Amino acid sequence: MTTTPPSDSPPLLLVADHVAGAVHLLTLPRGELLTSLTGRHASEHAGFLALPGDRVAFVDDRAGELVVLAPFEAVRGGNPVAATVPVAVPAEHLAAAPDGRHLVVTTGLGRNEEPWSDLLTAVDLAAPGGPYAVRVRTRPGEPGAAVPAGTPGTSGDGGPLAVVRHREPGSLAVHRHADLLAAGPGCPPAGPPLAELPLPDDGHGDAHDPATGRLFTATGAGVHRTRCSDGGPTVEPPLPWEADGRSGGRGYFLRIDVRRRLLWSCLRGGPSAPTAWPAWTNDAWWHHLDTGRTGRVELGEGLVFRMAVAEEHVAYARCHPDGDELVVLAAAPSGAGRPTVAARVPLPPMDGAPRPGASPWDGVQRRALAASPGAPWVAVSRGGHGEIHLIDAASGVERARPTLPTPLDEGGRLALLVPGDGAHLDPAGR
């Protein structure tokens, strides 16, 4: 199902309060509440996935459903929920094919100490009779996922592939998406993959470039590259984390900047203990997908995790006992020049923020980020306070600070939506 946003539709901000069980939709730039969906506990780890037609998908971890939203329908006064389909939970990663029709959902730890679920869900949103999903077994862990378009040499009929990134032992398992959908009832094993390529055991972070068919996996040794092409998947030399005379650290996520054809991560270095997080070092790492140029930009010490891609900038939120900030980088267009720090915007403290000497992950407030390649703003949450800061990326000035009806404990998840912004060209949940 595709929809056409109203021609005068404002940009929207989608806010998931996964703890309280609500999804809010706000108009921008004023941040007025348009509507709320209650009883929806979006998977914080799998995040939001942009789909063609200005749709957005997420996994409701409590209901065990993939939810597809057409957010701009709410501008017309309509129902923003376009489709739902049952999937296995807790969702770890969510990814789509370039057509936005075929998806996969992997399962991970959820609120458990050890991996326990081995279920993988294959989804067809345009199946005859309506959206359809099938669950199969792989192996437990913290698997990543991608759904590259197939070719006659890799999937037989050129249909999409389902690639699962496993850990311990590390590997990329390549399946036909159609084979997964054809599995029988009872959650049978997925069956032998078309190909299985070795990876380091510590893979964490995945990206897929539909323009080239390349898959990227972040590991301690660098960014491993695999290309799905005629004749089967092929391994290319990994990209090193070292650049610009800076070394050390590793990335735990990857994200594609569709406007500038850049691959981004954040490299964390310093002491390994979670309790020593104030001393963690952080560098923004970038790689131009077409020219091969790579670089690093120092961000500062503390907790830096996810990032967001805006029209002319990218942004990282940095938490530190001495004060939190939004670090905004000017992203050089078309691979020319080098990204540089354009602004450091102080953020008000959070009650219940991570403390020195304690883990920054459990029982604390955090910040979520969102931006759109079609807008000049960055949205950052203030966990526990129910607030969103809408920052003008070029000037560093706060444009609005909407307050939500729920507290956004643990920071929530955000997605900034602009009609036709091309965000679906990064086909992984964020």
TrEMBL record:
Matches recorded under InterPro entries: Haem_d1_sf
Domain of life: Bacteria
Region of interest called Disordered, as start-end residue ranges on this chain: 223-243
Protein name (Swiss-Prot/TrEMBL): Uncharacterized protein
Protein source organism: Streptomyces taklimakanensis
